[in-house]
Amino acid sequence: MAINRDYIGRTYPVADPYEVSRVKIAEFADAIGDPNPLYRDRAAAQAAGYQDVIAPPTFAIVISMAGSAPAVADPGLGLNYAMVVHGEQRFAYSRPIVAGDVVTAQATITSIRDAGRNVMLSTETEIRTLEGEHVCTAHSTLVERGGAA
Amino acid sequence: MTGQVSYDDVKAGAELAPVSYPATRLSLVKYCGASGDFNVIHWNERIAKSVGLPDVIAHGMFTMAQAGRYVTDWAGPQAVVVDYGVRFSSPVVVPDDDTGATIELSGTVEEKLDDNRVVLALTARSGGTKVLTRARAVVRLP
Fold first, then answer.
1. Are residues A31 and B71, on separate chains, in Cβ contact within 8 Å?
2. Is the confidence metric ipTM above 0.90 for this complex?
3. Residue of A55, A60, A57 whose CA lies nearest to A40
4. Does B33 contact A at CB distance below 8 Å?
5. pLDDT tens-digit profile of A58-117?
6. Contact check, Cβ <8 Å, A88/B62
7. Residue A82 contacts B where some CB pair is shorter than 8 Å
8. How many CB atoms lie within 10 A of CB B17?
9. Mutate which of B26, B86, B92, B117 to test chain A, going by most A C-beta atoms within 10 A?
10. E strand spans, chain A
11. Chain A contact present for B1, CB below 8 A
């Protein structure tokens, strides 16, 4: 089934609020093998000017995936997930993610285009606090191998 | 960690000391759990090979995280990453042995911007292949 280009520009509902915990940040930092004390030691984070431990830059993917999941899995879009690989990723941050943040993510499909035999799906996911403060925008491009129209 | 870099001390064109980080099967299992990305190509060799991959491959985001660590280790605790983007040009193939794969990172200070920001151009290789291209981080330094 070909991907549905009518979905370009579609914005998905805001994901349930995500509460950023110290434990999850430490687990993520362990998983990427990064011993940086800013991700584990509150005193070290406070010495650097933060309220609490901060998250590694790519931690934003955990939150943005919650926002983009409804788009990627939308049956009407018709993305064949078994053939999907990650093409590009970018994060534009207003500030680091800090333990204690409660944030939401909302995804928009920004483009769908062919590249040779593949089709490229780009999404933009905004991460904001419940008060509306912008924290990070995640730009993702997924490649469906062999999915060109 | 290398201490703190200050904006005034950084010169455009300066090279960052290269660093290598490992990626083992255990790394990928841990990353699956921590990230919530359980795509079978990151832990099941049988299925990875059945869809045309040479072996289990690392999550692109795991590789991006290694390059992120390279940036924050260089920049120091007072620095803030304000923008970070990569293109995944080739997968990191992780064999089922005690060593796993190695991700080799290098970088240069591409440009100094206003507001104490610097642009780092990053290169990541594994097994002799570039695994990230167009990798750039913008960092605000003290």
1. no
2. yes
3. A55
4. yes
5. 999 999 998 888 888 899 999 987 788 899 999 999 999 999 999 999 999 999 999 999
6. no
7. yes
8. 11
9. B86
10. 18-19, 84-93, 102-115, 118-129, 134-144
11. yes
